[in-house]
TrEMBL record:
Pfam families for the chain: HupF_HypC (PF01455)
GO biological process, alphabetically ordered: protein maturation
Lineage of origin: Bacteria, Pseudomonadati, Pseudomonadota, Gammaproteobacteria, Enterobacterales
InterPro entries: Hydrogenase_HupF/HypC
GO molecular-function terms, A-Z: carbon dioxide binding; iron ion binding
Domain of life the protein comes from: Bacteria
Similarity field: Belongs to the HupF/HypC family.
Entries under PANTHER family matching the protein: HYDROGENASE MATURATION FACTOR HYBG, HYDROGENASE MATURATION FACTOR HYPC
Protein name according to UniProt: [NiFe] hydrogenase metallocenter assembly protein HypC
Protein's gene: hypC
NCBIfam families: hypC_hupF, PRK10409.1
Length: 76
């Protein structure tokens, strides 16, 4: 199952196969944070983990602009 996610203002389709389309209560993952790698949601994370990850990627981007593809995709 694919879901639409937004990362730094860019929307992408992400495969939820590895984390499941619904949570433990059977509710859709709408509004939940996921760690995404090469188009797959690898794990469900909390908001603090998501913000820490985005901050770390931004800090890496400040030093190595090629990291921007992880944050902003090819659109940037």
């Amino acid at each position: 199952m694919l879901a639409k996610v937004e990362v730094c203002g860019i929307q992408r389709d992400v495969d939820l196969t590895l984390v499941g389309a619904v949570d433990e209560q059977g509710q859709p993952r709408l509004g939940q944070w996921v760690l995404v790698h090469v188009g797959f949601a690898m794990s469900v994370i909390n908001e603090a983990e998501a913000r820490d990850t985005l901050e770390a990627l931004q800090n890496m981007f400040d030093v190595e602009p090629d990291v921007g593809a992880l944050l902003y995709g090819e659109e940037r």
